[in-house]
Amino acid sequence: MLLLRLTPTSGSIGNSHDRDWMRVSARSLPSCRYGCGRIANMTTTDPAVPGRSRVFSGIQPTSDSFHLGNYLGALRSWVDMQHTHDAVYCIVDLHAITISHDPKELHQRCRAAAAQLFAIGLDPEECTLFVQSQVPEHPMLSWMLECHTGFGEAGRMTQFKDKSSKNERVTVGLFTYPVLQAADVLLYQANEVPVGEDQRQHIELMRNLAQRFNATYGDTFTVPNAHIVKATGTVQDLAEPERKMSKSASSTAGIIDLLDQPNRIRKKIKSAVTDAGREIVYDVDNKPGVSNLLTIYSTLAGESVADLESRYEGKGYGDFKKDLAEVVADFCAPIAERTNEYLDDVTELDKMLAQGAQKAHAIAAETLANAYSRVGFRQPVYG
Ligand code: TYM
Fold first, then answer.
1. Which ligand 1 atom is at minimum distance from the Cα of 233?
2. Ligand 1 center to 73 CA (angstroms)
């Protein structure tokens, strides 16, 4: 492969020069027609749904179970949007090794992740679900984007600052994590990215990278928008309602896992931290614990917060929590059951993921071929 060395004519990769650090004219580079090369000649069925705008999102397989924050913040939208959009979803195992991991566990967790995603309602006929490491274009585009990302720009990512302060082993991969995330989305020319509020800054970065690349080399990538549901964009920890529910929390007491046993769920909800007073009212500033429980209740039961407030008027926290515990336990039990059914046949599960990867690869290869030709690379001769 010929690597074309580009020499910046002014500026450096740094804060004030992020935008004009590399002045390259697309017209000055050798042209290679869109889609040329072996990748583009592969016989694949076009997985795109004509006339539908595309969504892309990803989730890390870094725990044995997804939690209610993942579900309410993002996965619920994944399920809904598969019916209205051309939906491509990814289990991001490359991201999962940015912190220490156990290889066998990672392998198993990818399957468990896929099983849970099918169990919550993803339908392989309606969307494409695949594992990131099975589509090699992701790290290939990530490298190109890294070469267009300012060092200071990447250093401003709050998740990096957060994670690097908590982990003893801070890798370059953890630093470039958001750039790989940008590659994930841009490869699929996605219009929308359904995520929780904590991903907003990463989406902003990918928008900037797409715009910068397009401005430098000509239109190559769709500039994606974040799709964040306001009410559930941040689901809080039940034991510490001022913190978001997160798998990296020091205790599992405030995290409802989708695969938790019903009794464990009941116990966690009954011991959820509530606030001073007895009233069940939505007031995030003064009653963050109760407000969080109301949001969970309202979303899972499909009742408005106002209706719930009137239903529980004059009743105490005990009744409210008891009912909510049943709502959540009833919601999670069938997910756990279906997850186990999928995991009972891993051959079929792996086949579904391989089909997803094939569909995803067809889209990713086309975008990468175009991006390669735009920066002046030759096309890959394998694949
Ligand atoms: P991850 O695996 O941490 O979380 C998956 C999704 O769950 C959302 N989420 C929450 N939403 C509301 N309240 C919470 N407490 C909560 N906790 C998690 C996250 O916002 C996310 O949408 N970097 C991503 C994975 C990723 C990705 C992508 C996402 C990689 N490539 C491309 C979108 C597009 C992450 O770590 O998500």
1. 12
2. 8
Q: Which of 54, 59, 181 to mutate to test the pocket of ligand 1 (most atoms within 8 A of CB)?
A: 59
The residue contributing the CA closest to ligand 1 atom 22 is 195
Instruction: Give me ligand 1 centre to Cα 31, in Å.
Output: 38
Query: What residues act catalytically?
Result: 163, 244, 247
Other Cβ atoms less than 10 A from the Cβ of 61: the count is: 25
> Quick one: which of 113, 185, 187, 173 has its CA closest to 352?
113
The tens place of each residue's pLDDT in the chain, 383 residues long, gives 333 333 333 333 333 333 333 333 333 333 332 222 222 222 233 445 678 999 999 999 999 999 999 999 999 999 999 999 999 999 999 999 999 999 999 999 999 999 999 999 999 999 999 999 999 999 999 999 999 999 999 999 999 998 888 877 899 999 999 999 999 999 999 999 999 999 999 999 999 999 999 999 999 999 999 999 999 999 999 999 999 999 988 899 999 999 999 999 999 999 999 988 889 999 999 999 999 999 999 999 999 999 999 999 999 899 999 999 999 999 999 999 999 999 999 999 999 999 999 999 999 999 999 999 999 999 877 65
Contacts of residue 361, defined as CB under 8 A and 6 or more positions apart, other chains included, come to 44, 134, 135, 137
- The Cα 364–Cα 183 span in angstroms is 10
Residue 59 CA: nearest ligand 1 atom is 2
Residue 368 CB neighbours (<10 A): 28
Cα dist from 126 to 82, 129, 147, 334, whole Å: 6, 10, 35, 21
As for ligand 1, residues whose beta carbon falls within 6 Å of it are 56-60, 69-70, 73-74, 92, 95, 181, 184-185, 193, 195-196, 198-199, 233-235, 244-246
How many A from CA of 140 to the centre of ligand 1? 22
Give the position of tokens 């935008």.
19
250 CA to centre of ligand 1 in angstroms? 19
Which residue type occupies 99?
I
